[in-house]
């Protein structure tokens, strides 16, 4: 039995390791805020949300399948919560009763039987919910799940389970079949159903000798121990079967909890974004070949969740552009835009909504981030060395049709060298069919692409008003040879913290649509 | 001294270790002085691990002066390395080890039926091992005289009537016993033994009921029971009854065991013992090769034109590979009249490792083993001298210098033109002036002797001491002296720009990225 809420034909691998670049993604895109909002303090939900968010898919059908399930969940959050609760309860039962590890087979057996008893109660709960809400949902995923609960947990089956448990509870005397091991000791103990007691009696009376028997004398302790040892070995397989059945049930409930948990986490996030008045929409994923990226009022979810000030969204049209270069004023919203782009890409590719009024974007094989790091915590090598090591790690993992977000990368050396490295990296990746968004203050690097690859490059610039204030909104504009760091220092008295625009100035309402050269 | 040679049926010597008539140049007592300096003692200890007798210990330091004896072993190595013969012979050795363990174990078994079963099993394992080995040798395109001779001997053994009868009988005994299946019914203290008559498996029924919830592989809850270590009388009693239920099978086993007491051929045992020298070495270098590091079979001859490409310190490589760290390879080459390599350069740059490598290469080649590198020509030598100053000894400055002087004098008094000398920071405990003066004297002597040497020093001027001296330097990243490359090169470090050098190091230049990231 399967939940199959994330894939129509298979499970999501929750216990698979996170992608190797997950640490960078989480810290560069500040995903802990996003995941925290999804989890609402529940560490389990946090892990579930992280596992699904970071293991995005690039299959448009899968994304559509999840979007439909999520739409159902947003419309009927209570039913999702009820189903989720049953799974949670079932797993709590297990924690309560199931505590044995390597005891004797007979105690394993009795522990397993009481656990099975408890699980059957939860199965009946699931069945009841499935009966109640059979007609509630529109998505294939949820309809199939409820239908399978009704079918696989039908009355006949539940009766069979009861019968089995009854047999496990009452036993007296055992028949164990054996074979000869390498030293002729008995091996391959298998407990046999002892329903054929009569034939045993027959064997004793009729025909040639086919059985021999003896009795262990009452005071023969060693003999009695051997017998109880043999009995334990005999019960071993049945105890194992019962214990494995417990595990099967637990694994089923775990899987159910995890898959439902992801949607529940989405519902949590949705509630918070809506409560804060942010736009939310289901994105429109496009095939890679379209090189689509067009958004209106796209916001950085983590900033939106943290900030008490209004948050500015960006309108960008970069369809057909494989390289987006963002230049301009410090604290002008460049990094925020970069994060909003990366976060939206991840959310879209795991089937979630995004914080925008619209987004159409091509799916990527994988998304990578290469952000400047404030400190070098390795202490063994210089900053450039550290940056290039991370670049090399990306090169190990990346494949064509991926996306890389660079934030002030290769700036740890002088501009001539940094630009040269940046140019070589970008050129190589573009030729490998990788999409890039590069935030840089290095004019030499940005301008190089303006001269060599203008038609496939979109240049955005953090806007500065005539009075020197920043709007935190990006505009299509070629790179300028200078940056605006100086006046920021002047205005903020040296307080330079690029990612706190809400501290700097109140935001303005959304502005004009930005068009790339080919749009 | 270990007995090395044995004789086959015709009386001619049959050994894998020395060519016919050659028994090397005498055994070495104890561990030679160079072993610790070159870290060969670690390697030897690792190789000897898990060996039953110390064959490695007795052969590892026994240098062969005769190139024919070296070639003899190289051919055995080459044969073992071809195809999967190494794994096949290892499996053979492993299986025979089990056979001997069986023979030891059955001595302690009081019950005849148990003992017989174990004996039968030992013979079966033995026959399987011998038969399998013969098949593998038959399929292998053997080129070494030693293995060809053993193969012929083995064929003769297998074709003998005694062996083939034993093998056939073993097989039929085994299958007769494997077919024995019986039931033990235990009720209280009463035990009844009968033939098995198709009673149903109860655990299968239980598993079947709960199978539908299974999400993945199930944990094994079977309590682990060891065999029947004590052989209690009850189990013997049961086995006795089983023997009565199956009188034919057990009677014929009694007879079989009486006739096959001495089944283990001494020539097989000797081969198994000797081949472990080769297996131990190949086993030792296996992880190193698996990490992509090359080994090669050196040509061993004149001391002019010594070279080794992409070579490395074997013991260090083994350690680094285990820790998952990269291993740096170096090329070394002495052209024409060049005899002495003087290594200078920054500390921690791989100088000592380089010196060790030179010594190891020559020693390993001299015992017929493959050496680190893609290709090598190495010198025959009469003695290998090493002197490694230890930095941790710096506390006793004056005593240390005297010690150094005595050791160096001792070496240079005994060295001949055919010797190899490896000296590492020989006079590091003294002032620069002294070290230069003493080093120059030592080098003069070595140049006069025209012997092969590596001399590691912190005194730069020693590197340009004469035409037979080659200067090599350890290198570091130019702007980051903390960075270790462990590369030792013939020329001083070139002036590659720091940034591009690091980019190159991390493989993130345009060219390297195009190679690394498809398409």
Features:
heterodimer; A: 519 residues; alpha/beta; Rossmann fold; 2 domains; four-stranded mixed β-sheet; elongated; disordered C terminus; B: 519 residues; six-stranded mixed β-sheet; 18 helices
Give structural notes.
The complex is a heterodimer of chains A (519) and B (519). Helices cover 50% and strands 14% of the residues of chain A. Chain A contains 17 helices and 13 strands. Chain A has helices at 22-28, 31-39, 43-54, 60-75, 77-97, 105-132, 140-152, 155-169, 197-205, 221-275, 301-306, 334-349, 383-397, 415-431, 443-452, 485-492, 501-504; strands at 174-180, 186-192, 211-215, 284-286, 293-298, 314-317, 323-328, 358-362, 367-371, 403-407, 435-439, 457-464, 470-476. In chain A, a hairpin with a 5-residue loop joins strand 12 and strand 13 (470-476). The radius of gyration of chain A is 32 Å and the shape is elongated. Chain B has 519 residues and is an alpha/beta fold. A six-stranded mixed sheet of chain B has the order 10-11-12-7-13-14, sandwiched between helices. Residues 1-12, 391-398 and 491-497 of chain B have low confidence and may be disordered. Chains A and B meet through helix 6, helix 8, strand 1, strand 2 and helix 9 of A and helix 6, strand 1, strand 2, helix 9 and helix 10 of B.
The first-to-last residue Cα distance of chain B is 62 Å
* Tally of DSSP β-strands of chain B: 14
Task: Tell me the name of the CATH homologous superfamily of the largest domain in chain A.
Answer: P-loop containing nucleotide triphosphate hydrolases
- Poorly predicted residue ranges of chain B: 1-12, 391-398, 491-497
By CATH reckoning, the class of the largest domain in chain B would read Alpha Beta
Strand content of chain B: 5-15%
Quick overview:
With 519 residues, chain A is of the alpha/beta class. Chain A has helices at residues 22-28, 31-39, 43-54, 60-75, 77-97, 105-132, 140-152, 155-169, 197-205, 221-275, 301-306, 334-349, 383-397, 415-431, 443-452, 485-492, 501-504; strands spanning 174-180, 186-192, 211-215, 284-286, 293-298, 314-317, 323-328, 358-362, 367-371, 403-407, 435-439, 457-464, 470-476. Chain B has two domains: 1-25 and 64-198 and 239-283, no CATH class; 291-516, P-loop containing nucleotide triphosphate hydrolases (Rossmann fold, 3-Layer(aba) Sandwich).
């Amino acid at each position: 039995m399967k939940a199959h809420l994330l894939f129509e034909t298979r499970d999501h691998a929750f216990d698979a390791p996170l992608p190797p670049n997950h640490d960078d993604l989480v810290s560069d895109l500040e995903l802990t805020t996003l995941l925290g909002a999804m989890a609402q303090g529940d560490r389990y939900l946090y892990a579930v949300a992280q596992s699904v968010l970071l293991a995005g898919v690039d299959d448009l059908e899968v994304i559509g399948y999840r979007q439909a399930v999520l739409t159902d969940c947003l419309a009927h959050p209570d039913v999702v919560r009820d189903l989720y609760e049953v799974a949670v309860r079932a797993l709590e039962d297990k924690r309560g009763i199931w505590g044995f590890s390597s005891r004797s087979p007979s105690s394993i057996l009795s522990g397993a039987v009481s656990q099975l008893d408890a699980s059957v109660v939860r199965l009946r709960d699931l069945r009841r919910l499935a009966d109640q809400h059979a007609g509630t949902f529109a998505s294939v995923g949820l309809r199939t799940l409820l239908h399978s609960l009704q079918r696989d947990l039908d009355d006949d089956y539940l009766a069979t389970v009861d019968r089995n448990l009854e047999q496990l509870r009452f036993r007296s005397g055992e028949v164990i079949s054996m074979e000869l091991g390498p030293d002729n000791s008995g091996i391959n103990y298998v407990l046999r159903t002892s329903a054929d007691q009569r034939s045993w009696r027959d064997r004793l009376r009729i025909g040639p000798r086919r059985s021999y028997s003896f009795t262990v004398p009452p005071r023969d302790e060693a003999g009695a121990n051997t017998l109880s040892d043999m009995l334990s070995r005999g019960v071993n397989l049945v105890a194992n079967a019962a214990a494995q059945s417990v595990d099967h049930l637990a694994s089923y409930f775990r899987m159910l909890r995890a898959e439902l948990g992801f949607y529940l986490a989405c519902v949590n996030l949705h509630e918070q974004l809506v409560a804060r008045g942010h736009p939310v929409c289901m994105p429109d994923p496009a095939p890679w070949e379209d090189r689509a990226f067009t958004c209106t009022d796209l916001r950085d979810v983590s900033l939106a969740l943290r900030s008490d000030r209004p948050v500015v969204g960006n309108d960008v049209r970069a369809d057909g552009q494989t390289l987006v270069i963002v230049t301009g004023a410090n604290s002008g919203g460049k990094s925020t835009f970069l994060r909003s782009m990366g976060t939206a890409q991840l959310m879209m590719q795991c089937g979630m909504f995004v914080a925008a009024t619209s987004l159409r974007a091509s799916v990527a094989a994988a998304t990578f981030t290469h952000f400047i790091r404030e400190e070098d915590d390795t202490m063994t090598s210089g900053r450039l060395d550290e940056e290039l090591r991370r670049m090399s790690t990306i090169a190990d993992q990346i494949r064509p049709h991926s996306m890389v977000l660079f934030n002030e990368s290769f700036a740890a050396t002088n501009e001539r060298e940094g630009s040269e490295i940046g140019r070589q990296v970008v050129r190589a990746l573009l030729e490998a069919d990788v999409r890039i968004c590069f935030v840089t203050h290095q004019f030499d690097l940005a301008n190089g692409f303006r001269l060599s690859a203008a038609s496939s490059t979109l240049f955005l610039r953090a806007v500065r008003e005539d009075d020197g204030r920043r709007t935190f909104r990006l505009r299509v504009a070629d790179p300028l040879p200078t940056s605006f760091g100086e006046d920021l220092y002047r205005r903020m008295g040296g307080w330079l913290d690029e990612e706190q625009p809400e501290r700097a100035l109140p935001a303005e309402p959304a502005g004009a649509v930005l068009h790339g050269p080919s749009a | 001294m270990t007995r090395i040679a044995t004789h086959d049926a015709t009386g001619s010597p049959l050994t894998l270790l020395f060519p016919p008539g050659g028994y090397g140049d005498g055994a070495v007592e104890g561990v030679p002085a160079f072993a610790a300096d070159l870290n060969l003692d670690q390697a030897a200890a690792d190789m000897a691990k898990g060996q039953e007798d110390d064959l490695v210990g007795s052969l590892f330091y026994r240098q062969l002066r005769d190139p024919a004896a070296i070639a003899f072993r190289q051919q055995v190595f080459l044969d073992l390395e071809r195809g999967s013969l190494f794994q096949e012979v290892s499996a053979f050795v492993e299986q025979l080890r089990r056979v001997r363990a069986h023979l030891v174990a059955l001595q302690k078994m009081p019950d005849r039926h148990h003992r017989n079963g174990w004996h039968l099993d030992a013979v079966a394992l033995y026959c399987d091992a011998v038969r399998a080995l013969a098949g593998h040798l038959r399929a292998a395109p053997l080129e070494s005289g030693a293995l060809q001779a053993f193969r012929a001997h083995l064929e003769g053994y297998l074709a003998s009537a005694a062996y083939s009868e034993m093998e056939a009988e073993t097989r039929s005994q085994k299958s007769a016993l494997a077919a024995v299946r019986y039931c033990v019914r235990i009720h209280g203290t009463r035990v009844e033994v009968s033939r098995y008559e198709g009673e149903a498996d109860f655990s299968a029924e239980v598993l079947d009921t709960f199978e539908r919830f299974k999400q993945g592989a199930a944990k094994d809850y079977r309590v682990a029971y060891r065999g029947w270590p004590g052989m209690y009388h009850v189990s013997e009693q049961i086995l006795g009854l089983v023997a009565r239920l199956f009188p034919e099978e057990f009677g014929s086993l009694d007879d079989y065991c009486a006739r096959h007491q001495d089944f283990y051929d001494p020539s097989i045992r000797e081969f198994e013992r000797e081949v472990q020298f080769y297996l131990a070495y190949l086993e030792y270098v296996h992880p190193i090769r698996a990490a992509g590091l090359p080994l090669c079979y050196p040509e061993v001859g004149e001391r002019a034109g010594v070279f080794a490409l992409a070579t490395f310190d074997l013991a260090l490589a083994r350690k680094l590979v285990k820790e998952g760290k990269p291993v740096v390879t170096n090329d070394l080459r002495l052209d024409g009249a060049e005899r002495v390599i003087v290594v200078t350069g920054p500390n921690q740059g791989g100088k000592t490792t380089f010196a060790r490598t030179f010594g190891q290469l020559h020693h390993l080649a001299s015992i017929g083993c493959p050496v680190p590198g893609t290709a090598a020509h190495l010198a025959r030598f009469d003695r290998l001298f090493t002197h490694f100053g230890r930095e941790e000894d710096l506390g006793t400055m004056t005593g240390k210098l005297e010690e150094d002087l005595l050791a160096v004098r001792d070496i240079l008094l005994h060295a001949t033109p055919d010797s190899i000398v490896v000296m590492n920071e020989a006079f590091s405990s003294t002032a620069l002036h002294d070290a230069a003066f003493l080093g120059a004297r030592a080098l003069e002597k070595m140049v006069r002797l025209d012997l092969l040497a590596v001399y590691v020093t912190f005194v730069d001027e020693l590197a340009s001491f004469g035409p037979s001296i080659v200067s090599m330097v350890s290198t570091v990243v130019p702007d980051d002296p903390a960075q270790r490359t462990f590369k030792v090169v013939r020329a001083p470090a070139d002036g590659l720009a720091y940034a591009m050098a690091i980019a190159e190091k991390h493989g993130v230049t345009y060219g390297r990225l195009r190679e690394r990231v498809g398409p």
